[in-house]
Amino acid sequence: MTRLIFTASAVALSLAAATVTAAAATHEFAADPQASRLEFIGVQAGAEFKGVFHKFTATVDFAPEALPSSHIEVLIDLNSIDTLDKDRDTTIRGKDMFDAAHQPTAHYVTKSISKTPAGYSALGSLTLHGVTKEVPIDFQFQDVGGPKLNGTAKLNRLDFGVGQGDWKSTEWAGNAVKVSFSLVLKPAP
Hints:
Layout: H1 2-25, E1 28-31, E2 37-44, E3 47-53, E4 56-61, E5 71-77, E6 81-82, H2 86-93, E7 105-116, E8 119-128, E9 131-142, E10 148-156, E11 176-187
Antiparallel strand pairs: 1-4, 1-11, 2-3, 2-11, 3-6, 4-5, 5-7, 7-8, 8-9, 9-10, 10-11
């Protein structure tokens, strides 16, 4: 009888420990849409301009101690672009650039995340304008005052077919685009 009680206690302790470990490894978040930002810097006629996407969702399953199972997924509403220039915004949404009428979203999902001296690096796939290419991101994860994820990426718009007709030339619209993001995270619903 004593052995049965001891075995039952050991099983109960093992299950409790496994439950605590599983809970610690599960860090599922959603970006707070009001507090998070997704921005980019492009070049038009030799001058940099900044743009922001007002509508996007980001789900993050991240734990520094469980990088192999961590991932980030972002869905961007391309019609929500705002560069503080209505004509430029209309052109970017148009057929020769995003073609947002036919392809209204961009989608990014990580494949792997690794630790770096400055924070973390992720390799993921970006689908934009019907083209999927790998795009690395560098980011930092902070959990002071609430979880936050801040990072950057670089890509070339022409790799995704963003720029047809006159916009295929880099004379007026630069090819390189710098992306930055700040995700204020809250527990996923």
